[in-house]
Design a protein that fits this description.
561 residues; mainly beta; Immunoglobulin-like; Rossmann fold; 3 domains; 32% strand
Amino acid sequence: MAKIRADIKQRGLDLSLKSSGRHAYLDGRSNLDWNPNVNLRNRIWPCEPLVWCAAICALFGSGLPVRGAGVTVITHGFNSDIASWIIPMAGQIVSYQNFPGTNSTCYELSITKSGSTYTATPSLIAGVPPLTSDSGEIVIKVDWSTISTTLGVSTVNIANAAAAALLATNLIPELGGRALVELPLHFIGHSRGGSVVTEMARLLGAQGIWVDQVTTLDPDPVSFYGDPPIKNYANVLFADNYWQNMGNGLTVPNGQPVAGAYNRQLTSLNGGYASSHSDVHLWYHGTIQLATPASDTQATITTAERQTWWTADEAEGANAGFYYSLLGGGDRLSAAEPAGAGTSRIRDGYNQDWDLGAGVTTNRDSLPADNGAWPKILRLNITGTNHFSVDAPVPVALYDQFGAGTSAVATVRFFLDPDANPYDTNEIAAGQFLLSGTGTNTVAFNTGNLTLNPAVTPPGSYSLFASISDGMHTRYLYAPEKITLDPSRQAPVLLAARIQSNQLQFAIAGYPGQMVIVQASTNLVQWEPVATNRLTGTTFDFVDPAGAGWAQRYYRAQLVQ
């Protein structure tokens, strides 16, 4: 993932479906000769690569609506802890206005030191087990308070322990052997914690793992303790930094701008804490808890702070801070300058080592090491409309990087999900295809169509997610767009006609959610409805109690669109 400019490859992949017709007919004369005019069956073709395209199409929308299924990691700085403001901040995430569910999972990750050994110990402290939540969101509160003032303990030591914990498949028993890094990662660090989270990103980048977002709150690395400077590395998709310089530099530290981030300098922080340094994380808290008053239990945001701490563009915190997380859904590609003309643009924080939507420039530090072991989908979108029938192709587009080398192969699988948790086994398979490796200096762009199976895909509203796996490592990402599916438009099929108990009976085969009207006629000219049914499965039986009273009668099934 070195900052070598590379052309983005575009690959096209296609899954196709054929369908036609709206009626099926059955001749119901006394001899019960059955002659259906339409007898459709699904024809599903495997996903096949199409020709390479020379240019990248503008398929992605500018906005990023809400997504679930992520890991949010929050940590503190010098002489602080998780109880004072982190627990209250984390507790507000599930109540955020756009939160994609009703529950989440919260762990405390305690990092301690014994001799030269650092140990990360997790404990489930709130929410439901991660395999059962409807949001898929996991919040990790990293607590290193017992050693945050210890000489010889640098943020590198803390980052090493925390990154190793995220990579471990046995850290969280409730995950059943899965590592936390399988899900999109959002790191939030205050003061020295800013150095912790940027170092965590670097360490994960050495394994080829991309971090979706790094948020630094008044970052203040302390060289006396061996803390490295704050950097945004090539594996960070979006970086945002909120800082102030109203402290005295001693008892009240000052933060700093960070290269490659959307930098928002906070200049109006009266009220709240007595320390402007602490006011920065209160400011960010106020972008999650949007009510007034809002409190992290240590300080309060009143109407006065709502009106002065945020600019007009930031809408009293509603369009700031947490709004630019995946859960917030804000437009990370925006050219807006919320703090005024000539200040940082939102899109300045987007990775521009490759053109992922924000252009190409040098705004990331090169990773010292990157073995490319973990494949990653960087962006996933449903293109065009998001409203289809279940038998219509669904166009998707994605950016990926699989740095293990061009001879490596990863499998991308797509799923429709009624909630936002890829682990709770209620998803519906929607297709798959193979991707070749990109190497660490290339990002690939892919487009394709998914073909759904109407027989196993009920109409309704779904989230779409994709997994990418090389057989050893798997990562997940949800598309920001919801998809709405209408019932299949394929014609129903009449079959299994028979006389039973002196009554004409036959089956009507269709697809779940279809509304079917059974019509009858004696002359094939005038038709009258005799039954209406919405399919819950793929067939229903029709019985005509009046059929025996007719010398001849014809039947047809009409699909109601």
